[in-house]
């Protein structure tokens, strides 16, 4: 497989990746950041998978059931046809809570004839660190390991368990199922019950999408991206994951690979802002509670990232027994970046708090907590904004005065002033306005490089950086301001590579990047749109959409030459930026139609 041709299924507790041939190759249970039970994605031989095999004359097609997270893989030789409907159950229980167990249903639907297939069922528990043994019991197959620590996995099925485990051919005459469970079931599953789970989960997703606005243009892309973002949210705490995977490399064969199964404050806040715009209040509420619970002390500095259950120590380790994706070692779990100082997170978080207060002004909870957090953020930003940091790209070398970090410090104060106005706290406004003006003046004096006529990556630098394009989005500068327009032009000239953007071109800790960070291209497209180059922006956007995989999903990076997807997958950053771009184009189209009808 030359590309990341996977679909994601999930239930806001965990997720799984299934290839375009129906091979289940990544899943961690019972939750997103648990040890893997299938990890062929990270090692073809040792990782473990659950594969559906048919003869060579079967054609395989894959799609999502429309407006759901249910993945349908269809196998047909013309006369004999069946489908596998893959999903993780999620639906409302009578108690009002969600049913979202740590399990995967593979519902096998008979369509026509007498199709034949075989199964390779080969889970490897605990990141495949020891031997996993399989035993056939009366009601299930149990897989277990006890080398690193004791762990078990259960497979229930309507098919003959010995045939399944030994990979013998199965002739399909009626619907059947496979149910992969972290826990042993109390009530024995049946095909009828699994069909009911499928329908209940389908209704959940259809209802969820029904609460999302419909757009004139790119509606299908917006909905698929919105569902993907939802799949990367962790219901229990409100955390939002950066991606569902670990160690998928930015460049094949290199060491740029990290564990993204955590909640970065920056990424998560951007996701929640988009989800709020799409009308999903509960995700926003849960995330704000996640932040409130992280900040018990008024002067406690935020980390840049946390575990999905609010863990603060995310110790980074390598799994040296795994070969890595396409041989790209090391495979990492944990992420040492949690120790880094990044001053931009306060502005991004304050922006989300302000947006929630505006969007849900008559329906906001925890107002007093949010006001305390606002005051605490202003105190921290005022104390630290003059200091260098690691920046948005998490450079592991020396700290610098990154322009993006400074702009987001300004955003923190600007949004705090707006929040003070909402809460009627007039006494704070004048005091904070002085800080706001000081930061703004500092940025204009030190981040602007008159020689290249652009805002640059860091103070005193001549390097350009795609992150400064967000100056306009966050309200620091107007789109038609000559300084912003010339910055967009300079970035297009220097960082654009055949419609894909470098984050930056200066060498970092690992040399010159050889792949495009997908969100940067979306930022660039948005900036072109904002400065009035809408046709060019649309051309770039439609070309970029063509680089998604067969299901419309994006990873973190795109290779400049081959255009293959690289990096962790699917990437929340990429999909939130896709939604922002698509909504801009859709609104423009709606405005044009209104003008046409008036004239």
Q: Tally the structural domains.
A: 2
| Overall 3D form | globular
**Average pLDDT figure:** 93
Q: Given this structure, which CATH class of the largest domain is correct?
A: Mainly Alpha
Estimate percent helicity: 25-40%
Pfam families: Glyco_hydro_15, TREH_N
Protein name: Glucoamylase (Glucan-1,4-alpha-glucosidase), GH15 family
InterPro entries: 6-hairpin_glycosidase_sf, 6hp_glycosidase-like_sf, GH15-like, Trehalase-like_N
GO molecular function: hydrolase activity, hydrolyzing O-glycosyl compounds
What does this structure look like?
GO terms for molecular function: hydrolase activity, hydrolyzing O-glycosyl compounds. Residues 8-137 form the Trehalase-like N-terminal domain. Residues 222-582 form the GH15-like domain. The protein contains 15 helices and 30 strands. The protein is an alpha+beta fold and 599 residues long. It has two domains: 6-209, putative glycoside hydrolase family protein from bacillus halodurans (Beta-galactosidase, Chain A, domain 5, Distorted Sandwich); 211-598, Glycosyltransferase, CATH 1.50.10. An eight-stranded antiparallel beta sheet has the order 6-7-8-11-17-15-14-13. A four-stranded antiparallel beta sheet has the order 1-2-3-4. Strands 5-12-16 form a three-stranded antiparallel beta sheet. Helix 4 (219-231) packs antiparallel against helix 15 (572-598). It is globular and about 75 Å long. The chain starts with 5 loop residues before the first strand and ends with a helix. 49% of the residues are buried. The model has no long low-confidence stretch (mean pLDDT 93).
């Amino acid at each position: 497989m030359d590309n990341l041709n996977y679909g994601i299924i999930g239930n806001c507790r965990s997720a799984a990746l299934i290839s375009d041939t129906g091979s289940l190759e990544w899943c961690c249970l019972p939750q997103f950041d648990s040890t893997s039970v299938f990890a062929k994605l990270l090692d073809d031989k040792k990782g473990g998978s659950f594969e559906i095999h048919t003869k060579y004359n079967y054609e395989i097609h894959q799609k999502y059931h429309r407006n759901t997270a249910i993945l349908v893989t269809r196998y047909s030789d013309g006369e004999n046809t069946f489908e596998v409907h893959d999903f993780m159950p999620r639906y409302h229980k009578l108690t009002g809570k969600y049913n979202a167990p740590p399990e995967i249903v593979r519902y096998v639907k008979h369509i026509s004839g007498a199709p034949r297939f075989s199964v390779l069922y080969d889970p490897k528990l605990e990141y495949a660190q020891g031997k996993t043994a399989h035993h056939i019991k009366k009601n299930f197959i149990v897989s277990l390991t006890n080398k690193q620590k004791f762990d078990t996995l259960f497979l229930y099925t309507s098919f003959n368990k010995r045939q399944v485990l030994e990979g013998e051919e199965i002739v399909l005459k009626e619907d059947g199922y496979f149910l992969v469970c972290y826990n042993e079931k109390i009530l024995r599953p049946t095909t009828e019950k699994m069909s009911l789970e499928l329908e209940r989960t389908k209704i959940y997703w259809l209802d969820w999408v029904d609460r999302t606005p419909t757009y004139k243009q790119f509606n299908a892309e917006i909905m698929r991206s919105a569902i993907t973002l939802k799949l990367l949210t962790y219901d229990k705490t409100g955390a939002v994951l950066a991606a569902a995977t670990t160690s998928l490399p930015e460049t094949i064969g290199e060491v740029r690979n990290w564990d993204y199964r955590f909640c970065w404050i920056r990424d998560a806040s951007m996701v929640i802002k988009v989800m709020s715009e799409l009308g999903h209040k509960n995700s926003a509420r849960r995330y704000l509670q996640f932040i409130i619970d992280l900040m018990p002390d008024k002067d406690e500095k935020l980390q840049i990232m946390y575990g999905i259950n609010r863990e603060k120590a995310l110790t980074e380790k390598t799994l040296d027994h795994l070969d890595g994706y396409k041989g790209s070692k090391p495979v990492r779990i944990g992420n040492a970046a949690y120790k880094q100082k990044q001053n931009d997170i306060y502005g991004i978080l304050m922006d989300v708090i302000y947006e929630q207060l505006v969007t849900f002004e008559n329906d906001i909870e925890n107002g007093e907590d949010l006001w305390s957090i606002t005051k605490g953020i202003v105190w921290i930003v005022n104390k630290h904004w003059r200091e260098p940091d690691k920046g948005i790209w998490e450079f592991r070398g020396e700290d610098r005065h990154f322009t993006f970090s400074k702009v987001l410090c300004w955003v923190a104060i600007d949004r705090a002033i707006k929040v003070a106005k909402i809460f009627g706290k007039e006494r704070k406004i004048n005091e904070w306005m002085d800080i706001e003006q000081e930061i703004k003046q500092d940025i204009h004096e030190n981040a602007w490089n008159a020689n290249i006529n652009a805002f640059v990556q860091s103070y005193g630098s001549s390097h350009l950086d795609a992150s400064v394009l967000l100056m306009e989005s966050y309200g620091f500068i107007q789109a038609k301001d000559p300084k912003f327009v010339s910055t967009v032009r300079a970035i297009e000239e220097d960082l654009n590579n055949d419609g894909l953007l470098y984050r930056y071109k200066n060498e970092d800790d690992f040399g010159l990047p050889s792949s495009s960070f997908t969100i940067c291209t979306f930022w660039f497209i948005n900036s072109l749109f904002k400065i009035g180059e809408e046709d060019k922006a649309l051309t770039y956007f439609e070309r970029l959409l063509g680089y998604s995989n067969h299901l419309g999903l994006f990873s973190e990076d795109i290779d400049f030459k081959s255009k293959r997807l690289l990096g962790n997958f699917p990437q929340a950053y990429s999909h939130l930026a896709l939604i922002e771009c698509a909504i801009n184009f859709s609104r423009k189209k709606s405005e044009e139609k209104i003008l046409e009808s008036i004239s």
